[in-house]
Amino acid sequence: MTLTVQKLTHYFNHPDDYLYKNVSLKFNPSTLYAIVGESGSGKTTFVSFLAGLDSPASGLISYNGKDIRKIGLTKYRNQDVTVVFQAYNLMNYMTALENVVSALSITKSKHAGNRQYAIDLLASVGIEGELATKNVQKLSGGQQQHVAIARALAVDAPIVVADEPTGNLDEQNTKEITEIFQRVAHQSKKTVIMITHDQKVADMADVKIMLENRQFTVKNSPDKVSDDKPSAVSIN
Ligand SMILES: Nc1ncnc2c1ncn2[C@@H]1O[C@H](COP(=O)(O)OP(=O)(O)OP(=O)(O)O)[C@@H](O)[C@H]1O
């Protein structure tokens, strides 16, 4: 269940003006990855390829050994990957609970129509009681991002991609959200790939991937690496 990037190259206008060239990376389950890099370095573009939202100029992205274009990008997006954005992207006219219930129904989840499942999912990210039945516009930004994660998790995809999920949040909410992603990776055994500008968030990841000078560099967080655990990511 590995997500693999092989020899990925991307440019928008001219091949000489590339964002990155021949990138090869491997993303494993049960691991939280942080992608860090300067503004404009191409992080969002890169994760849009991982999420099947766009395709690179060249290179191969495969999941479980299969080219995601052969899986079909729509199918891949529906069954294998779920995305959390910086700007929450909730249905503003709905309550927190309705947001999760609708995600279960739209994605034809096996839990579609199961209100208790939606309540439990929200509770698992700390949205409980009255908060769950409030219109999301009446919730704080941090609370809305918690709901957005519950909504994304409703899809139950093995890969979770998050583009600056804590970009608008204060320190406390940033810590809570990052801890949720740690849990999703370690307990739910998902592959979680998160873009961040925040060094503290990056330090909470199992693996840091720096995008600098058009090069990706992989760094395992020192306290997460032990002799019996091989590096979670390899790069050629
Ligand atoms: N569709 C496009 N056409 C042309 N250039 C683009 C397009 N999308 C992005 N770019 C350019 O590609 C570069 C990388 O953009 P991207 O949004 O991936 O960077 P980023 O690292 O995520 O930045 P930030 O941290 O500011 O969100 C930028 O210079 C951007 O202007």
From TrEMBL:
Gene3D superfamilies: P-loop containing nucleotide triphosphate hydrolases (3.40.50.300). It comes from the Bacteria. InterPro entries: AAA+_ATPase, ABC_SmlMolc_Importer, ABC_transporter-like_ATP-bd, MacB-like_ATP-bd, P-loop_NTPase. PROSITE patterns: ABC_TRANSPORTER_2. SMART domains: AAA (SM00382). Residues 3-235 form the ABC transporter domain. The keyword tRNA processing does not apply. Keywords: ATP-binding, Nucleotide-binding, Transport. GO terms for molecular function: ATP binding; ATP hydrolysis activity. This is ABC transporter ATP-binding protein. It comes from Oenococcus sicerae. The lineage of its organism: Bacteria, Bacillati, Bacillota, Bacilli, Lactobacillales.
